[in-house]
Automatic annotation (TrEMBL), chains A, B:
Gene name per UniProt: ppdK
Residues at the active site: H485, C867
Protein name: Pyruvate, phosphate dikinase
Cofactor(s) recorded in Swiss-Prot or TrEMBL: Mg(2+)
Residue intervals of the PEP-utilising enzyme C-terminal domain: 552-905
Length: 924, 924
């Protein structure tokens, strides 16, 4: 027969830390604290009913296993013995709390009932225990009735009520009404008589509402409480939370029944929360707050200002209050020793709940403390230095989002907490921003030039908007997905961006937008964006920023990261400025240099014009002449970036987009172009139209341009080789990797290589140079290329997976068009995640695996990397490590995130292999 | 040491038929005819120099193996002995021909030299041999000089000349000039004196042109001839031919040196060509033609009308001429016996070249005779009946294109031969057609209603053109590829169609088109199309047709086909009419019924309007109401087709195209719709615009519609099930297979299945029916679906590969947009074929293999088919057999082709396994 109840207390426990699946996080932790020989902390004794009971309960139509009752009674007897009190005893009653505890923490999602065992009959005993503190005892009884009515009778009883009409609300109103009537400002002013009258009123309310009496029987209360906790596992909020956090429904919760201790038994009692290190900064200092004569819920409620436990914990609000260290020096000392023990034992910063009942310290709970990004990094770096943890653990202690948090300015969380969002979209570019709304790229540029901070609001963006996007503080679009043009560009720049914000409707003609809640935002109005969450606020919210270069802990932490990771990290960078940023963030090369960038944004007028001239050429001769004019721009552009990246590889991708992307869309610009090119505008339109495609994604682009117009590839090869050659002549190291995009078969690469080899000879001879180092490789971004990778690797010296396109073609999802169905897919759990954000390992990952394995079957040491957006996504980076890539490449602002994820991949791998060893040892 | 020379003649031979690789087709055949005990035919003796010598020749800088000279001399001695003549002998000279012969026939691509060994010195000997026929001898000498100068001295000498300026042309002009001067109309009128003067003139011309004398030495002539044949292997035309026919360059050619026999030695001499059966009809009758006193080249030249060899071979032109049977009865009888022997030996219809020299019959060559489709089918069926060949051989005797030839009306080849094409495009829909040119779908409909035959000429077609396309005799587009809308639709209908005809430029406004050669074709002008070749003619060319139902041979042949094939063949059909056609062509079910067809073409007004209403609905409620109105149309549509196909499976695909495909494109129609729907036109435009997509191919379509609007799937499920249920109640057998399109993961199918199961119960209960048979499956047309087929098969009971989309996504080729680069790809041999025509086995085929294997790993007896255009492509059908599909589905007009290809797949497999057995036996 299974054991369903695990006792803890008095320096021993049935369970321990490793039994989280059975006892829940809380139960396992209490057992550990109570029973582990290194700890044996003063935990109020109690017992935990296992998660198996919860599973049983739901499988058996809300019945308990038959043996449970007996086990609970036995355990309770042990508690009574330890405490010297008796459950339901009128002279010296034992009161208990009933709490939930799932395998993984679900803070606030399930229910708790306190003060169970308190009845009219046992009240006098409690008064006696509190040295005649009648007010305390009646207040405890009042609290029990309120909580019980709410949690057990109403919620667990399945009574449906309208929002704000629950029993709890009614009771709160009665309480408030009494306070008002008596002119009280605080609950503590309530007299015994007041409490008695409230208790009587509450009991009446219970009877009226539920048609039965408040159960004034300890055992009925106890089983009611236990049942309510189990019921709360399937409460609406808990179910929702699990869905979001991906916690399986069948895990179930444990229930912990534990002796009540009271921090509100008088001035010698207190309750508090402490952290073994500062959770806001990471500083290695004992930090905490407490309240004299209060219960835990008072601390959480935030009605009274808590006092600092020590000098270190003082803040402006609490500086005048007495520290625990001063007020109860011996208790503080005891607590201090305990927190040291706890951190040493758990090897992580602990969040400790404690209560002092009549001068006696109890530890109610301890758990790994939450911390922000700055603190996480500092703690990890410090604990590694202190040899508390090893490098792998340090790396796992910081989450990717905490790294991101460190990198970006953000809206001040305090300001956000008090401001209502007016709209919500997809968080495409993290961080925060504020600015005045503009609706066109031109306006963004104009306003920005006047020194205004602007936020560009558009339905969608296109390459023509790049100038305005660049000038804007942030971008907000009403359409498009996480990998729409706006999202891609913004992420590349580390710019705050929200896309697909369907809550807003834009009126471009009259330059305003309205939100779902009816707010109208006009051009020039201030808004603020939280690009990490996707929320839009009206007005200008303050920003907070961090400085990494002088953040010693960050630098130390990243050294640990770099020590253990195996995957190299490069950046996608198109300009010397981007390249410098990339180096600053620790990039070890450029994994994607897009030759087409020079035709967008600042300084692009002349090259774009020449490109358009080339595109509009009717004959090869015309095209060659335009290309010749374009050549110096391309060469200088490449040379400048190669120069910044001396000693590092730079992967230069040949022209990728379909040519029509560069053709002006509007009549006016087309007219101007016609004039400049001296082509009749109708003829020009005809040529432009002939470039239009039904599915440009699958059209005439990438290497297909290089095959139909070999002279375009030729010009680019020449530019790369001359740039590299000139640098070598200047005594500089350079390593260009020439990358052919959009290939689907090896003969495409071979075709381009013939041109390259010819140009190579010509350049070497022109520059009088023997050798220019280079690699010649390909993107793998078309399913067929991955499937025939053994052939591709015959021609390609390296592969760079273009997972954006691979995902588009592998799924048949156009990333520009997924907005109309992907939300329904996620909503209906058809697919777990947006595959453009995190690599779909099952399908696209399979293509990548096939590609790498087949590629290396031909060329053993084939260099393999990834240069899509996924290169900056932590889960995807880990996948890249797992499948044996050599490097990932991501936007400069993501380099640190990728380095960290790469290190975590190694740490996770190590942990898994250790676990496997453990398992196999056990088997022996 | 390798043997380089193989002798034949006098009833024996060193080689035989099986040595084609070494001796070339001609050499092996001559050896077989001369030496095989069953044959021992009167072949002029000679010898063959092996293809290895050719390879050696090109590897060793055009030098021969040292032993060759001796071997040639030895072989020639044997010939001399047999013929009783001597090479170079002035009294009784032996003359020989030197001919090429590759492993596979390359007709007319390589060179031949005749009459070698004829010199001023040996001329008298030849005169003696011809009983003093001086004219004959000088004419032979004249021919030798012309041929030798052209082939050996100029072409093989590498002398480059402008077109029309070659030595041959110059000599021809000299000959013509002489004839004109003498008022001759025929070469035969040339006197001995004339010939002597020509010979002298020719020799001067040779000296002038090449700076050296015509070699009047037999051995120099012989080696020159041999060298010229080897040289011609790498001649421009031969190289091009090999490229087209995919013949490897390193095969090389053999050279056959053979005794000259002369059909022009007088009235007792003749030359002719005969076939063991009629190559035009397949009738089992000896058929042939001959010319008295002529050389082989005279027959080919077609200057004189050849006479029939027997009564059967008479035609209106030749009916008056004496038959060989009458003229030389004993020679005819000998020939008749030989042809019987040959067919029995080779078990196929033989094409025989013979020469009669002074009453003596010589067989110069025999080979498998070319035949047209009708004849091929008849011969195969007959020979199978005659037990000459087995079923597999019969099936292999007919090519797919011959089957196609049988199915379609075609332009009269005679008319085509005398008409110049005005343009050439891609042959998208085979067969022939003629009609008057119209430029819009509306015009096509209007003119057709007036009884005019029209050809619709457009830049490209769209679903809105379907009406006009249907009414037109044929379709001609200036843009688009082999799988453009026009091509697909036309092929589905078995309609003649030429696409991507860039030779024409359309002026839609003024309704005319111009061709590259300047021809202007106006609306109403007649043109004729050969859709098999892609040629366009001005005017109305006659058509020829075939009748299959009364073609007994065809019916017999298809029975053989059906007996051996394993793959089932279904048809893609959307209407009862199509379904009937499909049955007529032998379809065993419908593999693709497109629900959307009912919104195109005739009778679609009402359903299309309702569909548009549904599309333009703003709420689910509106949508449901429109769907309800649409329901009866859909149900009746499905029911009618199910009824036709009683007892056969019908795979019904849910709505596939993106919704915007159904939204009217032009302002006027949109206005009308707005009025009918009572929606403001601007609002309507907004809604229409919101449906537009950047890459509709990868957009909101297929199952994605069913997930965002489950009510659309629901309506379709209900329509299918009610249709099937009602038929069952009417006592009819029906087997609908419900097919979910555009799936990329199994949960999509599961999502739809939940809806289906609910509707199934509702329909069963409504119709009071216990069970409606059905299968529930999916298209596999997205790479991810193939890669995760093990998962897909958990939900899908059948797979149908949509290889069009699989090719689009696998290659990243939008079939609407490949026109801009695919021609360059084919041209540059980047890919061997248009992958939309024939499955790319290496890449897309790999996806299919993975899909089938993984699918069957989950569901062992998973039904697998294909329903793309490839289902009607013979090579692709064979691939489908190889990878273990259960069926292919193609357009009704392709069903016979697919059945035949499926049978060939089995035959080829059997042959391969026999060959393997042979090889392994040999090894033992």
């Amino acid at each position: 027969m299974n054991k369903f109840v695990y006792f803890f207390g008095g320096g021993r426990a049935d369970g321990n830390e490793s039994m989280k699946e059975l006892l829940g996080g809380k139960g396992a932790n209490l057992a550990e604290m109570a029973g582990h020989p290194d700890l044996r902390l003063p935990v109020p004794p109690g017992f935990t009913i296992t998660t198996e009971v919860c599973t049983y309960y739901y499988k058996h139509n809300k019945k308990y296993p038959p043996s449970l009752k007996k086990e609970v009674e036995t355990a309770l007897k042990k508690v009574e013995k330890l405490m010297g009190r008796k459950f339901g005893d009128k002279d010296n009653p034992l009161l208990v709390s009933v709490r939930s505890g799932a395998r993984r923490s679900m803070p606030g999602m399930m229910e708790t009932v306190l003060n169970i065992g308190l009845t009219e009959k046992t009240l006098p005993g409690l008064i006696k225990q509190s040295n005649g503190n009648e007010r305390f005892a009646y207040d405890a009884y009042r609290r029990l009735i309120m909580m019980y009515a709410d949690v057990v009778m109403e919620k667990a009883g399945g009574i449906e009520v309208e929002d704000g009409k629950g029993i709890r609300k009614t009771m709160d109103e009665a309480l408030e009404s009494l306070k008002k009537q008596k002119n009280y400002t605080s609950d503590t002013q309530l007299s015994v008589e007041d409490l008695k009258s409230l208790i009587s009123e509450f009991k009446n309310l219970v009877k009226q509402r539920f048609g039965r009496e408040f159960p004034d029987d300890p055992w009925e209360q106890l089983w009611g409480g236990i049942g309510a906790v189990f019921a709360s596992w399937n409460g609406r909020r808990a179910v929702e939370y699990r869905r979001i956090e991906k916690i399986p429904d069948d895990w179930g919760t444990a229930v912990t029944v534990q002796t009540m201790v009271f921090g509100n038994m008088g001035e010698d009692s207190a309750t508090g929360v402490a952290f073994t290190r500062n959770p806001g900064t990471g500083e290695h200092q004992f930090y905490g707050e407490y309240l004299i004569n209060a219960q835990g819920e008072d601390v959480v409620a935030g009605i009274r200002t808590p006092a600092p436990i020590n000098e270190y914990s003082k803040n402006p609000q609490s500086a005048h209050l007495p520290t625990l260290e001063k007020l109860m020096p011996s208790v503080y000392k005891q607590l201090y020793i305990i927190q040291k023990k706890l951190e040493k034992h758990y090897k992580d910063m602990q969040d400790i709940e404690f209560t002092i009942e009549k001068g006696k310290l109890f530890i109610l709970q301890c758990r790994v403390g939450k911390r922000n990004g700055v603190a996480a990094v500092r703690m990890a770096a410090d604990m590694y230095k202190e040899k508390l943890i090893d490098a792998e653990t340090a790396v796992m202690r910081v989450s990717s989002s905490q790294i991101i948090e460190l990198l970006l300015p953000m809206l001040d969380p305090k300001a956000e907490a008090t401001t209502k969002a007016i709209a919500k979209g997809l968080p495409a570019g993290p961080g925060g921003a504020r600015g005045r709304v503009v609706f066109t790229s031109a306006d963004a540029v104009e306003w920005a030039q006047k020194g205004e901070k602007v936020i560009l609001v558009r339905e969608e963006t296109s390459p023509e908007d790049v100038d305005g996007m660049h000038k804007a503080e942030a971008i907000l679009t009403s359409k498009g997905g996480m990998t729409s043009h706006a999202a891609l560009v913004a992420r590349g720049w580390g710019k705050c961006c929200i896309v697909g914000c369907s809550d807003i409707e834009i009126n471009l003609a009259e330059k305003y937008f309205t939100t779902k809640d009816g707010t109208i935002i006009k051009e020039g109005d201030w808004i603020s964006l939280n690009g990490t969450k996707g929320t839009v606020y009206q007005g200008s919210l303050p920003l907070v920023d961090v400085d990494l270069e002088h953040n010693k802990s960050y630098q130390e932490f990243m050294k640990i990261v770099d020590k253990i990771r195996k995957l190299k990290v490069r950046a996608n960078a198109d300009t010397p400025r981007d390249a410098k940023t990339a180096l600053k963030f620790g990039a070890e090369g450029i994994g994607l240099f897009r030759t087409e960038h020079m035709f967008y944004g600042e300084g692009s007028d002349k090259p774009l014009f020449l490109l358009r001239k080339m595109i509009m050429s009717k004959t090869e001769e015309e095209r060659r002449s335009a290309l010749q004019e374009l050549f110096p721009f391309v060469k200088n552009d490449i040379k400048a970036t190669l120069e910044v990246m001396q000693g590092f590889p730079v992967t230069i991708r040949l022209l990728d987009p379909p040519l029509h992307e560069f053709v002006p869309h509007d009549e006016e610009k087309l007219l101007a172009l016609g004039k400049e090119l001296n082509i009749d505008v109708n003829e020009l339109k005809r040529r432009a139209d002939s470039l239009k495609e039904n599915n440009p994604m699958l059209g005439h682009r990438g290497v297909r341009l290089g095959i139909t117009y070999p002279e375009i590839s030729e010009m680019q090869f020449r530019a790369i080789l001359e740039a590299a050659g000139e640098l070598i002549l200047e005594g500089k190291k350079t390593m260009p990797e020439i990358m052919i995009p959009v290939t689907c078969c090896s003969s495409e690469i071979a075709h381009q290589r013939v041109i390259f080899d010819r140009v190579y000879k010509e350049v070497c001879s022109k520059l009088k140079i023997k050798k220019i180092p280079f690699m010649f490789g390909t993107m793998i971004e078309i399913p067929r290329a991955a499937l025939t990778a053994n052939k591709m690797a015959e021609e390609a010296e390296f592969f760079s997976f273009g997972t954006n396109d691979l995902t588009q073609m592998g799924f048949g999802f156009s990333r520009d068009d997924i907005g109309s169905f992907l939300p329904d897919y996620i909503e209906n759990k058809i697919i777990p995640d947006d595959p453009f954000q995190t690599i779909d390992q099952e399908g696209i990952g399979e293509l990548i695996s096939i590609g790498i394995n087949r590629g290396r079957s031909t060329r053993k040491h084939l260099e393999v990397g990834i240069c899509g957006e996924h290169g900056g996504d932590p889960e995807s980076v880990k996948f890249c490590h797992k499948v044996g890539m050599n490097y990932v490449s991501c936007s400069p602002f993501r380099v640190a995130v990728a380095r960290h994820a790469a290190a975590q991949a190694v740490a996770e791998e190590k942990k898994q292999s250790t676990n496997k060893k453990k398992v196999s040892k056990k088997r022996k």
